[in-house]
């Protein structure tokens, strides 16, 4: 079991990795600081292999981006199968502020109190139970407008991410943004077309993920990987992995 899990852990060139979502600059800088201090990567990012040369990062975009900015040539990535994934979207809870007036005055967006028979960007849930439905006036600007909305509040606040079923607003001055569902094939097509989703909207539940490996960053900066050192590390991990019922592998 453990050998099979570790066989999915690969060192992949940064040039072969593709993002499906934007990154938040503040979060990225904080993560870079932590990595530079610890000098290890505890939890490898997760990716799907799109073709022989290209991998799609589905979890750990900020880790990959931070390591790339630090000059790493390779990224340790756990490559998983589609069958190991369950895709969901996060709800975002944030305080109402000036950003809210800004998006409501945007002429490219349509706000209604009732659902329309067209693709919805999001539903806004208020603490009093009222709802607003948000649409793009023009379908071809759907993803641009979605990204615009999310960028307006992520630039001002730390977003409280909630499971998609949770629409209970915790504070009278807050709202919850609830996004329409996506399929993995839709996300893949967006990436193939050169696009990305807004930061922090996708949520992947992944079976059998590897955690707490503490991979030395010193291995990742050379153009040629030290295969002997990597084999030695995987042997150590194989002897000390523990399997938990919630389908993760944790190095202890």
Automatic annotation (TrEMBL):
Give the matching Gene3D superfamilies.
Conserved hypothetical protein from pyrococcus furiosus pfu- 392566-001, domain 2, Conserved hypothetical protein from pyrococcus furiosus pfu- 392566-001, ParB domain
Which residues belong to any copy of the ParB-like N-terminal domain?
5-96
In terms of Pfam families, this protein maps to: ParB_N (PF02195)
Instruction: Supply one GO molecular-function term.
Output: kinase activity
The organism's place on the tree of life at top rank: Bacteria
**Which keywords does the record carry?**
ATP-binding, Kinase, Nucleotide-binding, Plasmid, Transferase
Q: Which InterPro entries match?
A: ParB/Sulfiredoxin_sf, ParB_N, SbnI-like, SbnI-like_N, SerK/SbnI_C
Descriptive protein name: ParB N-terminal domain-containing protein
